[in-house]
Predict the 3D structure of the following.
Amino acid sequence: MEDRKLLETIEDYLTGKMSAQEMATFEITRKNTPELDQMVVEHSLFLQQMDAYATRRNFTKLTESTFQHLLARGEWAMNSALPSKVKMIQLWNKYKKVTAIAASVGGFIALATSAFIMYFAPSLNGNKLLQLSKDIEVIKKNQQVQGHLLNEVKSKVPENATLLSGGSGFLIDPKGYIITNAHVIKGNGAIVINNLGQELHASIIYADKNIDLALLKIEDKDFSAPATIPFTIRKKMSDLGEEIFTLGYPRNDNTIVYGKGYLSAQTGFEGDSSTFQVQISANPGSSGAPLFNDKAELIGIISTREKLAVGVAFAIKSNKIIDLMHAVNDKEEANDVKLKISKEAHQETFNRKNQITNYKNYIFSVRSYN
């Protein structure tokens, strides 16, 4: 396909001009062609930057039109019989209040425009990634929507504690050890909530901000420890195009959410070798959500997404989770804390529905507080 025709096809896909059948065919081709997938991501960024440019152009035209309108009404004189200094004083006295307001508005618009450009222009903004933890405002709104449900069910969050952040996590050891992202843990205390809505006390055992991973341990008499973990951790490199799925808590009603996609690059943002790129929907609250393949293997943990690209997320590779477990075992050796990696995948022949039904019992919503 010629480059121009290919770009037209990609643009039709991004702008929703394709029929349902055409879109389905295109998505299959995109899934099986990493080069095409990358072109879609890049063209999506290009279109968004063009929209930003058009907005700036429209604002410039508006200011020029306003100036011409004032000039036509005589509110602004290009030439005058009065000396320029006297004319300026008269104009100032007449319009100083309006000018002050305009200056304030103009300053706000300038700042807003600058912020808009900084957000949409990657060359001007180094921070192009979005961490996928939930902030305190989202959690507060969630509490309000549920009619202060935490108080009604006697929440295990301490009465005077302040909720700071939230995300997802998953059980990695039957003794109650949970992996999540380090950026989810912004406080010094935590609770985890299972898919039945049951809150459980958890302590923060270890956090490594460099690899953005943290380990919690459920320490609650209400916790029923499972006999085994139904998935193992993949030690080898995952394959490009490999189908993956995730379970996490991106919604505000603490409902577990399933998502599916595929591995679209074996490195992460700007070639980061500790992460890989996945084509999957990920929203605030998805931080800490595990990624599985069809072989009952944990292949990574969702951490960030690109701000400007639709459906492009990044996941920390599973070998970093293994590194974290070894680091914790070495650190806690004196206390006989030994995390065990499940060596057998118990559901390799099970279908996706059965995997989800079982796995959701091992996925938790995480809340951090001070």
